[in-house]
């Protein structure tokens, strides 16, 4: 069978939301009013820490698809002041959020045990307003949220090959700035991080054979498998990956912005930044190349995302091993596209309705397990009760 990225069609029920006159959709999606709809029509569970589990009305997959959002819409009214990555979340909230992640991942792996039949993934994305605010759809719901998704591999195999020139699919491949000019610097920096549970993958061992992705991204095997997700150490290392990425990204684009700029404030690993980045000719040569192009190419400069933008996920590879990867998300691809899955959402209430009962049944079982673990209380909506 031909290996390559797939484009699948996922039907959804049109959302009965009226965007107020004079507002752009992305402006409305950041509002408290929109989050009210998310709670009352799609909410499954919430807890005192402000974490909301909800059904994805515009989902990636109708096999299994849910998200947790850190709902700060009422406590932080400024969208640009809300936490948008794990490292910005209060420790007490992150502790609960990690436990919720573990419970949901455990359910997905139990429900879908065969890596030949299902692609299982969980992860989050940076939602910073780090690309032009005039761009359409940016930033929709500027609050930290993550995704839990399962794709049927038979459906993926039957789907057409996606357009390989789709810019969202090239983020981690040969077109990537990081991979083309700083691959060795990037990998060497990550190799210095203090990791015990996460072990660097051998080249090519982490790819999904069906899609050929991920491409060019640093990846780590979770030694101990699903059992390791129950260990605090795993989640600390998961954060370490993000912290290392943030330091690298901020340092590099700081040099792009200003020649010979000092070390960014509040970096997590200052000694590593100084020794491995600020004295590295390959990194500084690449920064000069990008800086020079920005000066002369307005369109290129306008597309730069100056602050850390990333997708970080845990997924199961073909051998049944859990893998962690992180994207140097300079383009803004969807989290599924890191694994070569392009989702084309189409409004089709009947098709969605056929899949909805089984999907909701799984989501309610996940909710039951979370309530049982004292991770929140159920929410009643027009479609399901609170119990």
Explain what you see:
The protein is α+β, with helices and mostly antiparallel strands and 387 residues long. The protein has one domain. Helix content is 36%, strand content 18%. A ten-stranded antiparallel beta sheet has the order 7-8-10-9-5-6-4-3-2-12. Strands 1-11 form a two-stranded parallel ribbon. β3 (51-55) and β4 (64-70) form a beta hairpin. The mean pLDDT is 88.
Keywords:
alpha+beta; 10 helices; ten-stranded antiparallel β-sheet; 387 residues; two-stranded parallel ribbon
Question: In a few lines, what is going on in this structure?
Answer:
This protein is of the alpha+beta class and 387 residues long. 36% of the residues lie in helices and 18% in strands.
- Which secondary-structure class do the elements indicate? alpha+beta
Total strands: 12
Question: Based on CA inertia axes, which overall geometry fits?
Answer: globular
The share of residues in helices is: 25-40%
Q: Tally the helices.
A: 10
Mean pLDDT: 88
What kind of sheet is the major sheet? 10 strands, antiparallel
Could you give the order of strands across the largest sheet?
A: 7-8-10-9-5-6-4-3-2-12
Task: Supply Rg.
Answer: 21 Å
Q: Encode the helix/strand succession as letters.
A: EHHEEEHEEHHEEHHHHEEEHE
Q: In the residues, how many domains can be counted?
A: 1
State the end-to-end distance: 45 Å
Task: Please indicate the percent range of residues in DSSP E strands (runs of 2 or more).
Answer: 15-25%
Stretches with pLDDT under 50, minimum 5 residues: none
């Amino acid at each position: 069978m031909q290996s390559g990225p797939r484009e699948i069609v996922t039907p959804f029920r049109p959302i009965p939301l009226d965007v107020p006159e004079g507002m752009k959709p992305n402006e409305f999606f950041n509002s408290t009013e929109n989050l009210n709809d998310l709670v009352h029509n799609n909410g499954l569970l919430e807890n005192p820490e402000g974490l909301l589990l909800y059904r994805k009305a515009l989902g990636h997959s109708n096999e299994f698809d849910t998200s947790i959002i850190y709902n700060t819409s009422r406590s932080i009214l400024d969208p640009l002041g809300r936490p948008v990555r794990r490292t910005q979340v209060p420790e007490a909230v992150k502790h609960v959020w990690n436990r919720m992640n573990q419970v949901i991942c455990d359910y997905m792996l139990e429900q879908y045990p065969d890596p030949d039949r299902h692609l299982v993934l969980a992860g989050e994305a940076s939602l910073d307003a780090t690309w032009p605010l005039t761009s359409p759809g940016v930033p929709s719901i500027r609050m930290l949220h993550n995704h839990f998704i399962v794709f049927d591999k038979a459906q993926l195999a039957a789907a057409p090959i996606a357009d390989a020139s789709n810019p969202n699919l090239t983020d981690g491949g040969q077109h990537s700035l990081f991979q083309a000019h700083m691959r060795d610097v990037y990998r060497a920096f990550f190799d210095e991080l203090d990791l015990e549970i996460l072990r660097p993958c051998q080249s090519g061992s982490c790819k999904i054979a069906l899609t050929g992705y991920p491409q060019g991204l640093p990846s780590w095997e979770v030694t101990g498998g699903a059992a390791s997700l129950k260990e605090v150490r795993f989640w600390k290392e998961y954060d370490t990956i993000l912290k290392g990425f943030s330091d690298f990204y901020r340092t590099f684009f700081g040099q792009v912005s200003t020649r010979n700029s000092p070390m960014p404030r509040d970096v997590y690993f200052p000694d590593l930044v100084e020794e491995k980045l600020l004295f590295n000719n390959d990194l500084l040569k690449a920064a000069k190349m990008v800086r020079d192009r920005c000066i002369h190419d307005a369109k290129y400069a306008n597309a730069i995302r100056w602050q850390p933008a990333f997708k970080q996920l845990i997924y199961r590879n073909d051998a049944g091993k859990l893998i962690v990867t992180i994207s140097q998300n300079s383009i803004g691809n969807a989290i599924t596209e890191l694994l070569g899955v392009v989702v084309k959402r189409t409004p089709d209430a009947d098709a969605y309705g056929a899949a909805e009962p089984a999907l909701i049944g799984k989501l309610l079982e996940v909710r039951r397990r979370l309530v049982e673990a004292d991770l929140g209380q159920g929410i009643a909506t027009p479609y399901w009760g609170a119990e």
